[in-house]
Every structure is written in C-alpha cells, then in structure tokens.
Amino acid sequence: MMQSISAEEMEALAVNVLASLPEPFSEYCRDIVLHVEDFATPEQLASVGMVDRWELSGLYEGRPLPERSVWESGEMPPRIWLFRMPLVAEMRSTKVTFEALVRHVVIHEAGHHFGFSDEEMHALEDQVLQRKSRDCGRMRTSRG
Questions:
Q1: Percent of the chain with pLDDT over 70
Q2: Secondary structure element (H or E) that encloses residue 81, with its range
Q3: What is the pLDDT of residues 93-125, one digit of tens each?
Q4: Most buried by CB count within 10 Å: which residue of 74, 130, 143, 144?
Q5: Residue 82 carries which DSSP code?
Q6: Does residue 1 lie within any of the structural domains?
Q7: Considering the domain boundaries, does residue 33 fall inside one?
Q8: 33, 44, 75, 81, 129 from 50: Cα distances, Å
Q9: Which helix (H) or strand (E) element contains residue 114?
C-alpha cells in the first residue's frame, strides 16, 4: 500500500476524477482550478469553522453555479483545494486507497460547485464508480 504521494501525483488523480464525471458535469468543471497543498491555511480553516489543520482534506472556493449570473465578470475561477497530509493520514488510519479518498473529496468539492446536497454528491460519486466499473469490464472483455 502506498504510504505517501507527491502533490503532482495527487493533482493527476484529481484531474482524472474531474474528467471521469459524466456529462454534463465534466463540461462544467473545466474552469475549476485544482490546487494541492500539504495543509489548509489558517484562513481556509476559519472559513469553514475549523482550527485543526489535520481535519480538513478538501475545500471548494468559488460561487456555486446556481448562484452565478451571466452578467458577472471579473471573479476568480472556482478552485478545489486538496490537502495532502490529512489525506495521507486518513489513508493510513482507514486503509482506504488513496485513489478512493481523492475521488471522494474531489467529487464532494465539485458537488459544492454545482450547489449539490450531500445526497446528490453521493449519487454523483456512485455514477462515477458505476462508469469506472463498466469501463474496467469492457477492458477485460476486449483483452479476451
């Protein structure tokens, strides 16, 4: 089992997760900027009512799509932040794969982009997993 992962590897996983979202979701995620840092800043923690930097594994910053207007301009692009060290610690303590943790956090944060409820975020994650399972099945069949 992988015990650590670089910021670059984590970003690559996150990019793949966003690309694996079904349409039309993936289309609306193209403007999201991904950032990977070891920990959230004190300001980021305070924005979600947290103090312990080990507790926050991801953060969405931006205006959710349902709250946007075509008349707005000049805003920073939406951002998803992934915090590497809390995710590595969670992987070690839960034995969940790093890919699964990153997928869960990225989909959760992308859900904020769409203004989704937790239930809708879980449904989107289920769609991604079903699609991944179908794609793996096709690869096994085509190799024969």
A1: 87
A2: strand 79-83
A3: 998 999 999 999 999 999 999 888 889 888 888
A4: 130
A5: E
A6: no
A7: yes
A8: 23, 8, 26, 15, 30
A9: helix 98-114
What range does the domain containing 28 cover? 7-67+76-143
Q: What is the chain's length?
A: 144
DSSP string for residues in 41-71: -HHHHHHTT---TTS--EEEES--GGG--TT
Give residue-wise pLDDT tens across range 34-60: 999 999 999 999 999 999 999 999 999
CA angle, corner 104, sides to 101 and 106, nearest 5? 105
* Domain-located, residue 93: yes
**Residue 97 domain-assigned?**
yes
Whose CA is closest to 63, among 52, 50, 74?
74
Residue for token digits 């920990």?
Answer: 39
**For position 91, which CATH number holds?**
3.30.2010.20
